[in-house]
UniProtKB/TrEMBL annotation:
InterPro entries noted in UniProt: Pept_U32_collagenase, Peptidase_U32, RNA/ubiquinone_mod_enzymes
One Pfam assignment: Peptidase_U32
PANTHER family the record matches: 23S RRNA 5-HYDROXYCYTIDINE C2501 SYNTHASE (PTHR30217:SF10), PEPTIDASE U32 FAMILY (PTHR30217)
All residue ranges annotated as the Peptidase U32 collagenase domain in the record: 390-505
Top-level taxonomic group: Bacteria
Entry protein name: U32 family peptidase
Length: 764
């Protein structure tokens, strides 16, 4: 079995040190710009230089996340950031924006690029296309099952998979719920996590609320594959990624150490079983309940936690009673002063507090043990039998902090000592990677009067490496004769030699220092055939019948409609783990794997997240691409700026598509709330959402329609259809309407209205 990389999150320098010292092979972190965790403790330029040097000295790689969408007016700043990262020894970039990828490949062809999970790579074709694009690694969607990971590994590209941490209910890169509802884009690092809020599932027509075990219908548990490490190694994945740039250093350190030990045990031929104690440690650090996730086909109640969207810790006791401002609790696990606690309440907010005061027999004490009855100050009303949760274990935190103070592994070094009487002693040190340094002592060697410098004495002094990232492998004593030198001289030479070695190890790409950007050549793009003026995407037979005779291009992803109406242009689905292949002249492409099809003319949809002219140019440089729809996260003014920038560079207007009407997808999910509440959440293709209309209802009473597509992936739509105003319509772009919930009469009325507007604009 091949040793996978263990990749750890670093939202701060303390978290980075914890990751390194607990055995990470690489860390990923964000700069203060263009990272998908805008609210993490990202690194400024000075901190980033420090982080890279520290990691390289400890033989750990650094990947920087530049994984947000880049707007046209941000391109110059993004390029300047890439210049800085390239010349400051960053090992690789994790990138989402196709335009930025295209520019980097031409500006710095030796800079290693990883396709972010926000590129929505979820099938073998997607892996193949980013490999052809020149990327070194693809970060697969969290929804990818382990069998598909094995298939994707056959493409010969490094694959990164998430093995631990928070799960999103929507495919990364395809979620617009935070952006459209609150103006905080997940694709711009600002997600407000509306999926962790309460919702009800209701029938749209009657308003009837479907009974549910809790309110948090879109909140998944946390991924934990520690017991599946061996199977994941056999999947062919190159890198195991731990999520958590927003987490505290103790969380990072403990999770890294757990996976380090499990990976090393498996590779050593041991077959470790699940250790309950280790799982309890991880639960104490953070958990919403654990699941092995989509990797291992978990769904329904094995995947989602509708009861609480936050850290639940572990249960350590039960409330017996409450009197005089204190609760009496019988403990089932140890409790220490300083622990974080929570008491669960059925009606009302849970009560969270720190165990600053613990009473036993009416006396203050520092701890409580299983079986004991203790009292805690709580003034809010609490019912008997309520659960007491431990959300922070203060003793565990101290233990993890102590473990993280020393590196889990050290680099082996070999010393060679040379010299003769009357000359300084040479201390030569080399590491296992070939880095070397040499230092001469200030004082000269003297003939020994008593105990000469033998190999044992040299080893004793040179082996004092506890405050370094090194460990002693050997000492080669080549001194000529019986010689003496003060111990302080040996220690100082050792310190200087190791400092020099660490500095040399810190720079992994010295050739980059003098390199500047290569001349950026524009892409080769040939003018394309004109697109249809009005494109209408439909979902139902009634819509097809109502629009069949109108001068518009119908598009659908519904197989029955594609077969029944030859004039309908087929569309791929947004998610297709094993894509259906349509042998047609035209095809609407919803995801990047479709770009591997070179014999069909493709119209790329908003799922490609085009927000700048570089991304537009990259797609249009593909021979098969005939047109590109803008991202739904940019406004008409930004769209116009992209078109103008493209024209200035390439001399003609790009064939673009403007989304002008329709319910936009807020989420595309593998987790179906309809089946989960009406069945058991494990069935697929149940058709329940087509037999009855459903919606998710938030606390404000707003309804978000939900339905399943042809492959049974759940779509959550915005509450009202989006529509551009007349003054925002671009006559140079094709217009796209998406009809989903509209009946036949409304569909025809809407389409005819836009036909009239387009005819009027073109006639002016």
């Amino acid at each position: 079995m091949k040793r996978p990389e263990l990749l750890a999150p670093a939202g701060s320098m303390d978290a980075l040190i914890a990751a390194v010292n607990n055995g990470a092979d690489a860390v990923y972190l964000g700069s203060t710009r263009f990272g998908a965790r805008a609210y993490a403790g990202n690194f400024d330029e000075q901190q980033l230089r420090q982080a890279v040097r520290y990691c390289h000295q400890h033989e750990v790689k650094v990947y920087v996340t530049v994984n947000t969408l880049i707007f046209e007016n941000e391109l110059d700043d993004a390029k300047a950031l890439i210049d800085f990262l390239y010349h400051n020894d960053v090992d690789a970039l994790i990138v989402q924006d196709l335009g930025l990828v295209s520019w980097i490949r031409r500006a710095y062809p030796d800079f290693e690029l990883h396709a972010s999970t926000q590129m929505h790579i979820h099938n073998r074709e997607g892996v193949r296309w980013v490999r052809q694009l020149g990327m070194k690694r693809a970060v697969l969607a969290r929804e990818t099952p382990v069998e598909l990971v094995r298939e994707c590994a056959e493409e010969g590209l490094d694959l990164e998979i998430f093995v631990y941490g928070a799960l999103c209910v929507c495919y990364s890169g395809e979620c617009l719920m935070s952006s459209i509802n609150g103006g905080r884009s997940g694709n711009r690092g600002q997600c407000a996590q509306p999926c962790r809020l309460p919702y009800q599932l209701v029938e749209r027509d009657s308003g009837r609320v479907i009974e549910a075990p809790g309110e948090y219908l879109l909140s998944p548990m946390d991924l934990n594959t520690l017991d599946q490490v061996e199977e994941l190694i056999r999947s062919g994945a190159t890198s195991f990624k731990i999520e958590g740039r927003m987490k505290r250093p103790e969380y990072v350190g403990a999770v890294v150490r757990a996976y380090r030990e499990k990976i090393d045990a498996v590779l050593a031929g041991m077959r470790p079983t699940s250790e309950e104690g280790e799982q309890i440690r991880l639960k104490k650090l953070f958990n919403r309940g654990f699941t092995t996730g989509y990797l291992f086909h978990q769904s329904g109640p094995a995947l989602m936690n509708p009861l609480r969207p936050n850290h639940v810790g572990i249960r350590i006791g039960t409330v017996l009673s409450q009197r005089n401002g204190r609760v009496q609790v019988k403990l089932t696990a140890p409790l220490h002063q300083g622990d974080g606690l929570r008491i669960l309440r059925e009606n009302g907010e849970d009560i969270g507090f720190i165990a600053n005061y613990i009473y036993k027999h009416d006396l203050l004490c520092a701890q409580g043990q299983p079986g004991e009855i203790i009292e805690l100050p709580v003034r809010e009303k609490v019912r008997p039998e309520a659960a007491l949760l431990q959300t922070t274990d203060s003793e565990l935190m101290k233990e993890i902090q102590a473990q993280s103070a020393q590196p889990a592994r050290r680099t082996a070094v070999r010393f060679t000592i040379r010299g003769r009487a009357g000359e300084p002693m040479l201390v030569d040190v080399r590491d296992e990677m070939g880095f070397q340094s040499q230092v001469w002592t200030e004082q000269v060697l003297q003939p020994a009067q008593k105990a000469p410098l033998d190999t044992g004495r040299l080893t004793q002094q040179l082996g004092k490496l506890n405050d370094t990232p090194f460990q002693l492998e050997s000492v080669d004593n080549q001194l000529e004769g019986a010689l003496f030198l003060p111990v302080q001289q040996i220690n100082e030479a050792r310190r200087q030699a190791l400092d020099q070695l660490a500095q040399r190890r810190a720079v992994r790409y010295p050739e980059r220092v003098q390199l500047q950007r290569q001349g950026i050549q524009p892409l080769t793009i040939h003018e394309k055939q004109p697109l249809p003026g009005l494109i209408v995407q439909i979902e139902t037979r009634e819509q097809a019948e109502a629009l069949a005779e109108l001068p518009v291009q119908l598009i659908s992803s519904v197989p029955a409609l594609i077969q029944a109406y030859p004039q309908i242009m087929p569309s791929t689905l947004r998610v297709q783990e094993h894509p259906v292949r349509y042998e047609t002249e035209w095809l609407q492409a919803e995801e990047i794997g479709t770009l591997t099809r070179t014999t069909t003319r493709l119209i790329c949809t908003s799922g490609f997240n085009v927000t700048n002219s570089e991304a537009l140019a990259l797609l249009l440089s593909q021979t098969s691409v005939a047109g590109v729809e803008f991202s739904l996260e940019i406004n008409p003014m930004q769209q116009s700026a992209i078109r103008e920038a493209f024209k200035e560079q390439y001399g003609f207007f790009a064939p673009t598509v403007q989304y002008v009407y329709g319910y936009r997808d807020l989420m595309v999910s593998k987790a179906c709330p309809v089946n989960r509440l009406l069945k058991d959440g494990t069935k697929r293709n149940c058709q329940l959402c087509h037999q009855q209309a459903y919606a998710l209802k938030n606390k404000k009473g707003e309804l978000y329609p939900v339905f399943g597509d042809a492959a049974c992936y759940s779509h959550c739509l915005e509450k009202t259809p989006f529509e551009l105003k007349a003054g925002e319509l671009d006559p140079h772009s094709a217009w796209k309407l998406r009809l989903t919930l509209e009946d036949s009469a409304a569909s025809r009325q809407i389409v005819e209205r836009f036909l009239r507007i387009r005819n009027r604009i073109q006639g002016e």
